[in-house]
Amino acid sequence: MNSMVTFKSSYLQQVIEMAEKKNSNEPEFMQAMKEVLCSLEPLIIKNEEEYKRNSLIERLIEPERIITFRVPWLDDKGQVQVNRGYRVQFNGSIGPYKGGLRFHPSVNQSIMKFLAFEQIFKNALTGLPIGGGKGGSDFDPKGKSDMEIMKFCQSFMNELQKHIGQDVDVPAGDIGVGAREIGYLFGQFRKIRNTYEAGVLTGKGIEYGGSLARKEATGYGLMYFMREMLKANNISISGKKIIISGSGNVAIYACEKAQQMGANVIAMSDSSGCIFDENGINLSVIKDLKEVKRARIKEYLNYVPSAKYFENISEIPSVYNIEADIVLPCATQNDITLKTAKLLVEQGVIAVGEGANMPCTNEAVEYFIENKVLIAPGKAANAGGVATSALEMSQNSIRDFWTFEEVDRKLEMIMVNIFKQCQNADEKYNLGINYVAGANIAAFEKISKAMIAQGII
Ligand code: NDP
User: Fold this and answer.
1) What does the alpha-carbon distance between residue 178 and residue 103 come to, in Å, rounded to a whole number?
2) Is the CB of 213 under 6 A from ligand 1?
3) With a 6 A CB cut-off, is 188 part of the ligand 1 pocket?
4) Residues 264-292: what's their mean pLDDT?
5) Which pLDDT band holds residue 4 (cuts at 50, 70, 90)?
6) What per-residue confidence (pLDDT) applies to 3?
7) Residue of 160, 120, 161 lying closest to 139 (CA atoms)
């Protein structure tokens, strides 16, 4: 599906050829865009005249705005460091731009655009009034002192604050941006703007406008979606063996909910390697290592000596060599290539839940679908985080604070509804159990209507 993709619709073909030329150095963005457009083709063919007249698809794939900026900061040795900051405001037709900030050395414009593009569809699926955006920096938080993290966040916000606001654009966390970073970012926003605009950022601490259950939301939401998807296919989650790639925010809370649902999570990883604990992962050890000590996952063995550690040595991350019924990639994009997908199918996987954004390559997704592996697509399955961020914004607007159970109940309802939308689109368009295409179609139906209604802007 990747570079050689061809469409039956001549309009779509033209659009893609133009996009290839314009974005030739943005492989992740092209990958995300093609994946979506391929699955929208039946709809596009049906409405080709109207979409063409409106240049709807050309507008859909062009961000409304991209902001890039210099982020200078002083390290602990007194040396000035310079990073690049980004904010992509991709599509605001449904509501204020909304999407996380990623701090990771791999961040570039292609990755920012792919994430912001995915976010448009994800946010539409939540049913809440939020548009699609994403941002971040090539700053590497690993090995930095707390003071360095604070100085970086303050400098980043010095520029970002010009472009955000509770009715304009509302960033949140993503890889490398957790509660600590959101705290520093919010503090700097408040200082510069001299206003307590709590709804300008989500993922805040509970003491200053955050929502209960936001921390848990993406991982919990992933498991609510997975449960619904399995149930629709007459499979129970209880007793299933699960492996999770990653051990960050999404991975930890997916593990927690999976364990609550009676599944057995036997492996988790970080970018260096994975731990395998056939008795079931001890999650309090992982939380202590990752949320408190910011340590490597290998150190799990210091607490659970019977577990095993496998370093990543080949192009297939070590965690995927462990046999399981359900695989939850919760680390980063393109973690599962076709080669890994083949291995997983050989090992008998029945379902894959994308906790991360675009963790499977397009070829891997196609291979899973061909081999009747159920796929919970990231856009839908990991939407619980942003949905709960929108609930945080609601609480900020009405100056209220809901209980954990209240937020969790709303989250669960949203995830059940997102699954239903994917399932309905799958049935309506005869997709043959393809929730990936179902999610794209369901989201696009809403976005396209909003864009057309608002005229050529
Ligand atoms: P965290 O920073 O909390 O954790 C990221 C995890 O992934 C870590 O275990 C990290 O290992 C691993 N990882 C990161 N980069 C790589 C890499 N290049 N190769 C291998 N492993 C890697 O991030 P989150 O848990 O918040 O995010 C994980 C994924 O979920 C991302 O794709 C994000 O976009 C997506 N997501 C997050 C949401 C949220 O609410 N947080 C919402 C929706 C999607 P190490 O520490 O070794 O780098």
Assistant:
1) 10
2) no
3) no
4) 97
5) low
6) 52
7) 160
Do 216-381 and 65-195 fall under one CATH topology?
A: yes
Split at pLDDT 50, 70, 90, the class of 185 is: very high
For 65-195, which CATH class? alpha beta
Tell whether ligand 1 has an atom less than 6 A from the beta carbon of residue 83: no
Structure tokens at 442: 């369901």
Q: Closest ligand 1 atom to the C-alpha of 250?
A: 25
Residue 202 — pLDDT band, cuts 50, 70, 90?
very high
Amino acid at 398: I
Complete DSSP assignment for 14-52:
HHHHHHHHHTTT-HHHHHHHHHHHHHHHHHHHHTHHHHH
Tell the residue number behind the tokens 């007249």, with chain if given: 53
Q: Which entry of 52, 134, 241, 379 is annotated as an active-site residue?
A: 134
- Answer yes or no: 293 catalytic: no
Domain boundaries, the chain: 10-60, 65-195, 216-381
Helix (H, G, I), strand (E, B) or coil at 291: helix
On the 0-12 / 13-18 / 19+ scale of CB atoms within 10 A, 234 is: exposed
Tokens 């955000």 found at: 164
Distance between CA atoms of 11 and 24, rounded to whole angstroms? 20
What is the residue-wise DSSP string for 57-100? HHHHTS-SEEEEEEEEEE-TTS-EEEEEEEEEEEE-SSSSEEEE
What is the residue with the minimal CA distance to atom 21 of ligand 1?
271
Strand order in the sheet with 80-91: 65-74, 80-91, 131-137, 97-103, 169-172
359 CA closest ligand 1 atom index = 32
Instruction: Report CA-CA distances (Å) from 432 to 228, 338, 435.
Output: 17, 21, 9
Please classify residue 51 by burial: count the beta carbons closer than 10 Å to its beta carbon, then call 0-12 exposed, 13-18 middle and 19+ buried.
Answer: buried
Strand-pair partners of 265: 242
Radius of gyration over alpha carbons of the chain, in Å?
21
Question: Minimal CA–CA distance to 321: which of 274, 357, 375, 264?
Answer: 274
Distance, in Å, from the CA atom of 419 to the CA atom of 321, rounded to the nearest integer, reads 29
What residues does 67 pair with on adjacent strands?
A: 87
Q: Does domain 216-381 have CATH number 3.40.50.2300?
A: no
Residues 409-425 as b or e (16 or more Cβ within 10 Å = b): ebbbebbeebbebbbeb
Q: What is the pLDDT of residues 75-84, one digit of tens each?
A: 999 999 999 9
Considering the chain, what is the average pLDDT of its residues? 97
